[in-house]
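Before the break, one more example. Copy the sequence into your notebook; we will annotate it together after we see the structure.
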Amino acid sequence: MSADVTSGSAFTEHTIESAPAAARKFMTATRNHLGYLPAGLARWAASPQLVDGFGKLTTIFDSSTLDPVAREVVIMTVATRNGCHICARRQPGPHRRAARRRPPAG
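Here is what the structure looks like once it is written out:
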């Protein structure tokens, strides 16, 4: 399958098959974990170093003392402040799903 250029974007949105080999493992793991391949990751795939760095930073962030809901608030706040519409519109992540399962305070 060939890479597509997303309308309105100068970045190639790679599939797992079209991405550089060094990016495929993380892309596959992400797709298997989320059930889909996020558009941002599909675009980052042109730089396997970026994909690798994102994976490492995600692991570090997820091991922080912040609870899942607080981590999601940080992610959404940064995405919104930086104007990252891909991140701000993303499907509910594991942190948001955890927030919905949390019993009400009180």
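The longest strand covers residues 4-5. Helices lie at 21-34, 39-44, 48-62, 68-81, 85-88, 94-101. Try to locate both features in your own notes.
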